[in-house]
Amino acid sequence: MAEICVMGLGYVGLPTASLLATAGFDVLGVDVNPVVVESLNKGRTIFKEAGLSTMVAAACHSGNLVAALEPAPSDTFIICVPTPISDEKKADLSLVEQASRAIGPLLRHGNLVILESTSPIGTTRNVVGEVIREHGFEPGMDVHVCYCPERVLPGNTVAELVNNDRVIGGMSPDCAKRAVEIYQRFAQGELTLTNDLTAEMVKLAENTYRDVNIALANVFARVAEDAGIDVWEAISYANHHPRVDVLSPGPGVGGHCIPVDPWFLVESFPAHAELLAKARQINDGQGERMLERMMESGDLVSGDKVAILGAAYKADIDDPRESPAAHLSAAAKAKGLEVAVHDPLVEPGDWHGLMISNDLDDCLGGATAAVLVTNHKEYRSLSAKNFGDRMKGRLIYDSRKWLNHAALRRAGFKVFEVGRSLDQTQADVEVGMGTAGESNVDSGT
Ligand SMILES: NC(=O)c1ccc[n+]([C@@H]2O[C@H](COP(=O)([O-])OP(=O)(O)OC[C@H]3O[C@@H](n4cnc5c(N)ncnc54)[C@H](O)[C@@H]3O)[C@@H](O)[C@H]2O)c1
Predict the structure, then answer these.
(1) Which of 73, 2, 69, 7 has its CA nearest to residue 41?
(2) Is 49 in the pocket of ligand 1 (CB under 6 A)?
């Protein structure tokens, strides 16, 4: 019998299972995807994360981590399955329910069940707890139940799982103490104990806070674009105020968390959610805004091709979930533009309607405009010649301040930036090498 059964071996579950196995627990990792299970049992991972492959290989080699398609009786169950939103922006808790139902018949008195998936307030006791009740146990009493959210930054997940502070929400203080015994075996950050409802709100509040503040920065950017002000300069001066910390504007917000989690609050508390829904709309509308600015210049018209550089929602990762590129692509198609999407790291193919290619020549070929969405290292060295040799037109929208604008301009390109008017960008002599904007899409907190 395993000591810990981890349900869902994705970006959160697999590093968690591996850390627990490395800390000495006997861990059964469960995933409904046979590819995940097969690779793990060969000591391999199907996605890249710093330090993960070595740790997974070691955990499997030690015999402490084994993968299976079905759960088995364990002392503790940790649920790390996806909690997406539907097209109608409603929380889809079907996978949490499925995972709970899979462990339901295996539950014994004294077990601990931890939900880690980001969830609407009340999910732990109403969804997971309800399944526990159906199997004859009182959740929080006979079976201990906790909500313990993750705050990891994709790309640095393993280090953050170890070092970040954690909030541990128990249905009772005893439940929380049980979870602490598990996490303290590998976590070095502070463990704060509270109840499940508060812990659920903490997770949603963190990502909603970021979404709303990024939307505010994007509104400032739009004002600056219209007023002929450099928003980066304005923000940097505003941030000299000891109690002001304006974030960076950019192409929108991506990832599995920041663009999703606020909708859980909007759905559950519509009477209080006007600001949150508006922030979502502003951030998702950045792609449309970029296109409108280029089309207003008259150099981009319906029927032209737009090359989107970067399908990953964040630099140097291979994850396209909720990428700003998707909103940009949809807005471009709605305006009658042809769209091609390149990414050097994301698996090529159809990602929910976003056709991703690894072939940069093909993507830029015949394009009137190129929009840089992701500040991958690979794009940093793109020269005016790289664009000029392939593109038909001379429009670049650098939403990340990532390219050498002076060189592009000398080569005859019109360079647009978020938060600066075209006149300002065109007047640049030696700018364009900044990295501002990165912080906005490091979702997964
Ligand atoms: N990825 C992040 O950076 C991050 C950060 C914080 C919180 N979260 C939250 O953690 C949760 C998991 O996210 P993720 O990024 O690890 O997802 P993921 O898509 O990377 O992985 C989830 C895994 O669960 C598996 N799965 C689905 N249904 C299952 C079931 N019934 N039983 C067993 N396995 C099942 C899938 O096959 C997949 O391998 C989500 O709620 C997410 O919001 C993610």
Answers:
(1) 69
(2) no
